[in-house]
Design a protein that fits this description.
With 1007 residues, the chain is of the alpha+beta class. It has eight domains: 103 residues, Ubiquitin-like (UB roll) (Roll); 74 residues, Ubiquitin-like (UB roll) (Roll); 82 residues, Roll (Ubiquitin-like (UB roll)), CATH 3.10.20; 73 residues, Ubiquitin-like (UB roll), CATH 3.10.20.310; 79 residues, Roll (Ubiquitin-like (UB roll)), CATH 3.10.20.310; 76 residues, membrane protein fhac (Ubiquitin-like (UB roll), Roll); 73 residues, Roll (Ubiquitin-like (UB roll)); 397 residues, Porin, CATH 2.40.160. Helix content is 17%, strand content 40%. The protein is built from 18 helices and 45 strands. The chain has a 16-stranded antiparallel β-sheet with strand order 26-27-28-29-30-31-32-33-34-35-36-39-40-41-42-45, with no helix packed on it. Strands 1-3-4-2 form a four-stranded mixed β-sheet, with helices on one face. Strands 8, 9, 12 and 13 form a four-stranded mixed β-sheet that branches. The radius of gyration is 40 Å and the shape is globular.
Length: 1007
């Protein structure tokens, strides 16, 4: 008869001392003790264990064929529990002949998986807010006892948003294979309540009607009560508080004590408790300070409270303000007057003292750093065009002392001392001051030797390559901190999340040198067991997997997990991505990496309204103004995007623009990662464009194109494009061009390449760097083109900081169009269709011209069967070559937000590349192949989307030309063969010219 099996139990994380004694129990039974017997077999129940087999083999100290020892059983249980993947383990020992069979009976732990919300959801709250309300973190241990509290949190979220009758239920779905519990929040939002007239208690001062209007809970005039939302409730309370602040009642307290719901009327009635408090009157005595400036510098308005610390901070801010305005000796104190008649007065007594200009900032004692290196870190600024009185305050001076100290200490000068003194009456002038910073550098401490111990995974050369505190380098806490971050990041990137770092410095035998010891405790290396993806509805899993560079078996790298998350965000198709490591605190070495996705809305619509006021170039039958005139054009833009097409991360977009000058519609299909390369994008586009922004003609373009964008480096991008378009010219106002060849639609098949190199520090407002572009295109009959020409256009812009705030910027633009295989009856220049030619002039090219007014003009030519000559109109024709050079000197003008620009533009649009000339003088009224010049002044005002730009240009040598004062029909009626005394008056050419003065208003720098 077989002996009775005995079981060893262990619960939780407790290791029982009685485990050893459990093995003594069989000794009192029939089989004797199991201790020391040979283990015949080890099994697990269930057979599929939560631990990775490699982890299970690592923690299991009991092996078949070895002797059973109680301490091995206890240690194995300890190690299994330490992995964090078990809730309960029991060991069943049973005799098998002369040996023993062990069976581990386990109950695994559970971890939070996907948390999702579904059902009838009424936003707000949205699904993201609902999921966040349960506070179940992805990958964290799952505790069933938290579910009631999580459900209550969701109900409270709905209640706060007026959904008092919402039905909420939490369902759990267990993923046994991966030990995950997915939580589904099932919602039926119900009907949202509306606000009811609030009940107001307390000393309100203001009327109930005024308070009600301030809340915004009822729409004015129509008296329609809005639906309750948490945001609207909170903003209503804030608006009431701001209303009291506008009444200068800064100590007013506004509290929502209840929001009572009536299910019969589906209304929620707020109850407000308000204590208005006295009016606070803030005054400046002995100095004029506007009320707005007092509110800016005395933070009681911002904080909505009055206390001693805020008043002291206000005095300090006012002192700094007056010192920055040239009053270095200003003294600011305050006093609180006793409240009288519902009013409390606070007076700031300001004794400004004499006004002095900061004319010099001197630095003494510096030997290690040059003056410019130190000045780059300082706030104090001497008087200049932009800062008439300079920039000085005691706070700035102390901050500069600290900045200099930090600079030296970061470079090994541990004993550096920095002081400053203000010199009044500098150079004998009582209204001038200077500030002198005196630096006592002291000795520089260096690292004599660096020893790194405890590292076994990396070779010493690898660690030495990432540290800054090598032998002979400056010794500083900053460098040690950088080394700590570099080393721990290196270990974290290679699967050592628990690596630790300790630094210890001891004096070396050499003076002012230290021996530096870094001790590293690596901990265990962890690996990716698998990558689990959840939350995808439309997106194809294979598309996500292609963009997840994390694979099973790799070291578990936190930086790589976060980098993958950023790359997935860059796809633009996910609203939120959560990433986590399951059981991150457990001792198992193979862990699941989790990604949970919340897909973004697939449709986005942007509608914009705008207008343009400028020297417009719309076509007209009136030939009297070939340079155009100031006009107004409204503009409507519509952008509609469909994201994540086919679940592949592709985008279909429609872009429309409608104005009196242009009607444009484009449909594009975009693959942002062709062949899964994040630096490669392909775009298929169809375009219709009807433009009337050139005075001479209107162009109609219907185009299909495909473009490949390849980013080689961070700064360098190439574009490869093929386009086939049908170009039509209409509304041509020059009779010389009314030849069927020009009016016929022209098909252009063109292939082009663009190379872009952008090394600017700021694309919106660059201060240093360069920007280069090169465009090369070929239109050829081999691609179905009816015109054959090559086109090249290059641009080089550079930016040089002359001082901290002054920038010299320059730009050179050169281009040429070279026709070949010219059709019969056309010259080489006329073979290029009008819309394909270069046009220039305006705020981003040549400011000596209005928009698109540079270059060749109509000077009259034969037309019609009889070869009759027409009168010149002076309208621009564009050209086949361009040469433009721009210089700008950019400098601060007023404060930090307003800058000035002095500029010089030179260049032109030329008939052909051979006609490019550097002449500055026009030979006659038919000569346009010379270099125009303009000088001017501009103002730049900084905005978040780039500087607002106003430029006033003076053209030194604008072109003269002969024009016509009538209509097209009148021009056609003119017959040059008639005697001059028989010609109508309008047939006499009129000499015209481009105005010397031009102005432009736009957003963004010129280049």
């Amino acid at each position: 008869m077989p002996s009775r099996p005995w079981k060893i139990y262990a619960y939780g994380l407790v290791v029982y001392a009685a485990v050893a004694g459990a093995f003594e129990l069989p000794a009192r039974a029939q089989t004797g003790s199991f201790e020391g017997k040979t283990i015949v077999r080890i099994s697990y129940d269930p057979a599929h264990q939560p631990l990775d087999p490699r982890d299970l083999a690592r923690v299991q100290l009991l092996h078949t064929g070895s002797a059973l020892r109680s301490e091995d059983v206890a240690a194995t249980l300890d190690r299994m529990f330490a992995t964090g993947r078990y809730e309960d383990i029991q060991v069943d020992a049973e005799a098998a002949g002369a040996g023993v069979v062990l069976r581990f009976i386990t109950r695994n732990a559970w971890f939070v998986g996907q948390v999702s919300a579904r059902g009838k959801i009424s936003n707000p709250p949205n699904t993201g807010q609902i999921q966040n309300a349960v506070q179940l973190d992805l990958g964290a241990p799952f505790r069933p006892e938290v579910l009631p509290g999580a459900e209550k949190a969701v109900r409270d979220l709905f209640t706060n948003n007026g959904l008092y009758e919402a039905d909420v239920r939490l369902d759990t779905i267990r993923d046994i294979e991966h030990q995950q519990v997915n939580v589904e929040i099932i919602v039926n939002a119900g009907k949202r309540a509306k606000y009811e007239t609030p009940v107001v208690h307390g000393e309100t001062i203001l009327s109930d009607e005024t308070i009600l209007k301030s809340t915004g809970w009822r729409i004015r005039f129509i008296h329609y009560w809005r639906h309750v939302t948490q945001t609207l409730t909170r903003s209503g309370i804030d608006r009431v508080a701001r209303k009291y602040q506008k009444e200068d009642r800064l100590t007013a307290a506004v509290k929502l004590t209840s929001l009572d719901y009536d299910p019969e009327t589906v209304r929620a009635q707020p109850t407000l408790n308000i204590e208005a408090g006295p009016k606070i009157v803030l005054r400046a005595v002995n100095a004029k300070v506007s009320k707005g400036r007092l509110k800016k510098y005395v933070p009681i308005y911002e904080e909505g409270a009055v206390d001693q610390s805020l008043l002291v901070e206000g005095a300090r801010n006012l002192r700094d303000y007056f010192q920055s305005k040239g009053y270095p000796d200003v003294d600011v104190t305050f006093r609180e007057m006793p409240p009288q008649k519902d009013q409390q007065t606070i007076e700031y007594l300001i004794s400004r003292g004499p006004r002095r200009k900061l004319v010099a900032v001197r630095i003494e004692g510096n030997r290690y750093f040059d003056r410019s290196t130190i000045r780059d870190r300082m706030f104090l600024e001497p008087s200049s065009l932009a800062l008439h009185w300079g920039r000085y305050s005691d706070a700035f001076r102390r901050r500069d002392e600290q900045a200099i100290t930090d600079l030296y200490r970061a470079n090994g000068f541990r004993d550096v001392a920095v002081s400053s003194r203000v010199v009044a009456g500098y150079r004998g002038k009582p209204n001038q001051i200077a500030v002198t910073f005196v630096i006592s550098e002291g000795p520089q401490w260096l690292v004599a030797r660096l020893k790194i111990s405890g590292a076994t995974y990396f070779k010493p050369a690898v660690l030495n390559a990432v540290v800054a505190s090598g032998q002979g380098e400056p010794y500083s806490d900053v460098s040690i901190g950088l080394d700590r971050n570099q080393i721990l990041n290196l270990y974290s990137s290679n699967g050592f999340p628990r690596a630790s770092f300790e630094a210890r410095a001891t004096p070396a035998s050499e003076p002012h040198q230290v021996e530096l010891n870094y001790t590293i405790v690596e901990g265990n290396q962890e690996f990716v067991r698998d990558v689990l993806v959840s939350g995808l509805k439309v997106t194809r899993p294979e598309m996500v997997n292609r963009n997840l560079p994390i694979e099973a078996g790799q070291p578990l790298s936190s930086p790589a997990i976060q980098e993958a998350q950023r790359n997935l965000y860059d796809l633009g198709i996910f609203a939120e991505i959560d990433s986590a490591v399951q059981n991150s605190d457990g001792d198992d070495r193979y862990k699941y990496v989790l990604y949970n996705f919340d897909e973004a809305h697939r449709y986005t619509l942007n509608v914009g309204l705008g207008a343009e006021i400028a020297q417009l170039g719309a076509t007209t039958s009136d030939l009297a103004a070939p340079t155009g005139g100031t006009g107004f054009t409204p503009r409507l833009t519509v952008d509609l995007n469909r994201l994540n097409v086919w679940g592949l991360g592709h985008t279909v977009s429609f872009q429309g623009r409608v104005s009196t000058l242009e009607q444009r519609a484009a449909v594009s299909y975009i693959d942002p990662r062709l062949f899964n390369d994040p630096n490669r994008t392909v775009t298929f586009s169809v375009l219709y464009d009807n433009a009337r922004d050139i005075r001479t003609f209107a162009s109609h373009r219907e185009e299909g194109s495909v473009q490949l964008s390849q980013k080689f480096t961070r700064a360098t991008t190439a574009l490869f494009r093929f386009a086939y378009r049908r170009v039509t010219t209409s509304d041509v106002v020059i009779p010389a061009l009314l030849v069927p060849t020009f009016l016929q639609p022209v098909h252009i098949g063109i292939v082009s390449t663009s190379l872009i190199q952008d090394r600017r520090d700021n694309a919106l407002d660059p201060h240093r760097g360069m920007y280069n572009t090169l465009d090369v295109a070929l239109a050829t009959s081999a691609l179905g083109s009816q015109r054959n020409f090559g086109k090249i256009l290059g641009r080089n812009a550079t930016y040089y900081p002359l001082t901290k705030n002054v920038v010299f910027a320059r730009q050179l633009t050169v281009g040429a169009i070279i026709p070949y295989n010219t059709p019969a009856g056309l010259t080489a220049a006329d073979a290029v269709p009008l819309p394909e030619r270069f046009f220039g002039g305006g705020d981003i090219s040549l400011r000596s011209f209005p928009e698109n007014q540079a270059g060749p003009r109509d000077t009259g030519s034969p037309v019609g069967p009889g070869g009759m000559e027409t009168e010149p109109t002076g309208f621009p024709l564009g050209g086949n070559a361009v040469l433009i050079n721009n210089f700008e000197l950019r400098f601060p003008l007023f404060g930090n937000n307003i800058g000035g620009v002095l500029f010089h533009d030179a260049g032109n649009i030329y008939r052909s590349f051979d006609d490019i000339s550097f002449r500055f003088h026009q030979k006659n009224s038919q000569d346009f192949n010379y270099m125009t010049q303009a000088v001017g002044f501009g103002i730049r005002y900084k905005t978040p989307v780039g500087p607002l730009r106003i430029d006033l240009a003076y053209s030194i040598n604008p072109p003269r030309f002969e024009g016509f004062s009538g209509t097209v029909q009148q021009l056609l009626a003119c017959n040059p063969n008639l005697p001059p005394n028989q010609l109508p008056s309008q047939c006499t050419p009129v000499v015209q010219s481009i105005s010397h003065f031009q102005y432009f208003i736009s957003i963004g720098q010129t280049f």
